[in-house]
Amino acid sequence: VQLQASGGGLVQAGGSLRLSCALSGRTFSSYSMAWFRQAPGNEREFVATITRWSGGMTYYADSVRGRFTISRDNAKNTVYLQMNSLKPEDTAVYYCAADRSIPTTEASGYEYWGQGTQVTVSS
To answer: What is the pLDDT along the chain (123 residues), one digit of tens a residue?
Structure first.
């Protein structure tokens, strides 16, 4: 399994970005997907997760609920993270992750990881 994340960048506070993560090498619909993030000096933290099927159930960290939306397109083998109302504290490297098990908020619950994409929010 290979995961390729994209879509990061520099944005002003209050702005929006959409991250994408494409999975290759296996059947995308077999995998729960998640986004995590890691700021300098911090541990990797959970952001959002979605179950395997299109239109699947989602779950969010309290810090992003209501501002971020995770979705997936099984026909395109891609998971998305729409980020609105961005804040400087959202600045981090964002990672997508995949696993065949049921979704979890723990990083240890995901076997496959993308390379990360930098999101920087200026105040």
So the answer is: 999 999 999 999 999 999 999 999 889 999 999 999 999 999 999 999 999 876 789 999 999 999 999 999 999 999 999 999 999 999 999 999 999 988 899 999 999 999 999 999 999
Give the C-alpha distances (Å, rounded to integers) separating 37 from 24, 32, 92: 21, 17, 6
Strands 117-122 and 9-12: parallel
